Amino acid sequence: MFNLSKIFKKPSEEVRQNEVFRDALKNKYSSFQQVLSKNNQVLELMADMEEKLSGEYLFDRHYINANCMLIADGVLNIIENLNTLSKDKYTILYKVHNDIVKEIKKILEYKIEIPVSELSIPFENITDEMAGIVGGKSAHLAEVKGHVNLPVPEGFAISSYAFKRFMEHNTLFEKINNVLSSLGIEKLEELNRVSKEIYDMVQKADIPSDLEKAVRDGYSKLYQKINKEITVSVRSSAIREDGEFSFAGQYATYLNVPGDLILQKYKEVVASLFNPRAIFYYKTKGFSEAEMIMAVCVLSMVDAEAGGVMYTTDPNDPSVDHIIINAIYGLGKWLVDGTITPDLYIVSRHPEGVIINKRISEQEKMLICGKPGELEEAEVPEEKKGKQCTSDDHIRLLARYALDLENYYGGPQDIEWSIGSDNKVYILQTRPLKTIKESLTVCIPTRMQGYNVLIDKGVIACRGIGYGKAFILKDEGDLKDFPEGAVLVVKHTNPKYVTVMNKASAIITDVGSATGHMASLSREYQVPTILDTEVATRVLRDGQGITVDAINCNIYEGKVEELLEYALKKKESFKETHLFKTLGKALKKIVPLNLIDPEGENFKPEYCKTFHDITRFAHEIAMQEMFSIGKDHDIKGTKAIPLVAGVPVDALLLDIGDGIKGLPGKASTEDILSMPLSALLKGMKSMNWPEPRPVDAKGFLGMLAHSASVPEEQLYEMGKKSFCIVSRNYMNFSIRLGYHFSMIEAYAGDNVNDNYIKFFFKGGGAALDRRLRRVRLITEILKKMGFGVNVKEDVINAGLTKYKKATIEDKLDILGKLSAYTKQLDMVMFNDAITDMYIEDFIKKYIPPS
């Protein structure tokens, strides 16, 4: 005969006090907290990197590398703690993590292979495919000379392999990478310091003997070809230069160099690869140090009567059918670096060669070749002052050369040229012209009525509208103090100003031309720029708020809100950079989430494809592992503190981290520091618990019938105590009320992403129909509370996540009420209508309307 007394009998075996088990629980909880903490850190890093994809924030390669490493390390820490938590169930995640890291490294560690070649190569031996060997500048000039058949000075290239020989001979790659690897772009003083350090390294370095011989041989052959004593220009021809990215004015050029100084100037050009503005440029464009490779172009010197730059189209408005030519007397250096204002000639493309407009500058001085190794400043002869510095025939010839080059390269070109003392036009450089693709779809008034115009003249280098306080630069050293959103106001243009273009809302100069190096950079960074105002540094006041209309060439006092509505998005061009695209590629291995549904078939470690997948999987599994503590572990004999809370629950508490005040013999509600447990008990205590009373005989007999069908040892579950593991923010409560078993686990902290409640319920005792009605009651109430619920037979698994701490507290209060409400409720649930009545009653009384 079945003995009911055994139901209420304690297990015969007394379990010894187990401090080891307590420590194990503490370690498990510590690992759980680490998973949550690292998960949040990783998600914050991901969010920050995703924010950068908006294009509204400037960053460099160091930012990408550092954050990818931090995320990889954080995810590895999550994997380690998850395996500690689960006793190494998920070691496969180490391989998944390693594979993702390898893929990201392939993206970030892109490296240009420097091919073995001759150390110096004459132009006639340079072919179309050799840009990776001699750099863009030399390759283009050799093409122009050999294929387009336009006049180019004789010359030779010092190859990228020569650069490699020089750097390796002096172990400079390692030394420079160590200095640059962690350098950010935020502090100009740091850029200057690091640049000076690298410059000194390069200047002290030795030229390998084979490289020295190759350069001397190259010059000797050049001398023999021209058949007279010559000087040369030594110019940068970096591998990344004059291609998709201009690197305009970033590197050094030396003019009128005698043969015996070529090697010295070679080292100075190599050192210029790491000047402050070049470092800023390549970092903001997304290149790594390994991609900065300097070949050098050596050209026979043109003793220039005049020189300049021409654009095959208007870069601010490519739809205009014009060629723009700027020219000055003497060497063109003063034009490209913005020292003086040049002549401007506008030539029609169709019909070809018609000179539409001229603007002649008042050039007083010019730069000319002095004795070998020197440049001289000279007066423009009186008979030439105020007159155009090149003839109409030369202007038309230049325009024809411009169209020839555009047709050959298949796109607009930025061309540097010179007219020698032999009256011959020479092409010194050609590269793709950066044009403004975005245009305004609305008409902006030429003048805004009611606003004071401070300046209404100048040359527009980059169209756009910007507002900010004028920052009048008196000394280049003050660039370090340039504030975000200011308007840079300077006398001359200078490529050095690239270091603040990410901050500037606009740029204004007294002197300069739209074909100079700085103008090219303004367009690359899309900074509204007006040059050659003549008076900006005198008329504008430092700190004065101004609106720059670089569409109609007006500068207004104060903020003109109506104009700012039309301002083009300056940072859109950043989305086209190699750096921005690198970030996008890296994030594809980090951010996409493929593991969505924890109940889905693919919610397994082997299906993790990104770091986000791993964090999602680990977060879910970590909660499951903690939730299993009460189900998978025998905790009845663990030394714990009895709960005395005024509710009929015989429970023991195990504190694993500031969940109970002190070490009381018994814990009352006043002793409970655990927020989740306090909230649950608050709900429990607010209810009138059912007193022993006569119950429906059919229900009770159903319980007995069900009990008789299970192994006798399982009946002891009714005699087990409830058990609760707590910390300040955590609770795992295994509640045994009669023949019910439920488990409530909750975490409630300040970070909403960590917070969750999990609820498990297993019925027993009653006949199947009554157990299923009880399950339906609990399920409907949980759904009304916002839980996701999964039901199998009389087992309920439910959960909710990512609620604020106060909301978690409110939900636990309701769960406390529900625990009392359902105690042996199936004894009175005779039919579905009564069940519906109880559901409606509870919802109406205890769940606030949403």
Give a short summary of the structure.
With 850 residues, the protein is of the alpha+beta class.
> What's the tally of helices?
24
Proportion of strand residues: 15-25%
How far is it from the N-terminal to the C-terminal residue, by CA? 53 Å
Low-confidence stretches: 1-18, 632-638, 692-719
| Overall pLDDT level | 84
Quick one: biggest sheet?
A: 8 strands, mixed
Topology:
Layout: H1 19-52, H2 61-86, H3 92-108, E1 120-122, H4 131-148, E2 155-158, H5 160-169, H6 172-180, H7 188-204, H8 209-226, E3 232-238, E4 253-257, H9 262-272, H10 276-285, E5 294-300, E6 304-311, E7 322-329, H11 333-336, E8 343-348, E9 355-359, E10 365-369, E11 375-379, H12 392-409, E12 413-420, E13 425-432, E14 453-455, E15 459-462, E16 465-472, E17 487-490, E18 506-509, H13 517-525, E19 529-531, H14 536-539, E20 545-549, E21 554-557, H15 561-564, H16 578-588, H17 611-627, H18 629-632, E22 641-642, E23 651-655, H19 675-685, H20 697-708, H21 712-715, E24 722-726, E25 730-737, E26 740-747, E27 756-762, H22 768-785, E28 788-792, E29 795-801, H23 805-821, H24 832-846
Parallel strand pairs: 16-17, 17-18, 18-19, 23-24
Antiparallel strand pairs: 1-2, 2-5, 3-4, 3-5, 6-7, 6-12, 7-8, 8-9, 10-11, 12-13, 14-21, 15-19, 16-20, 20-21, 22-23, 24-25, 25-26, 26-27, 27-29, 28-29
General description of the model:
The protein has 24 helices and 29 strands. With 850 residues, it is α+β, with helices and mostly antiparallel strands. Helix 2 runs parallel beside helix 17 and helix 7 (188-204) crosses helix 10.
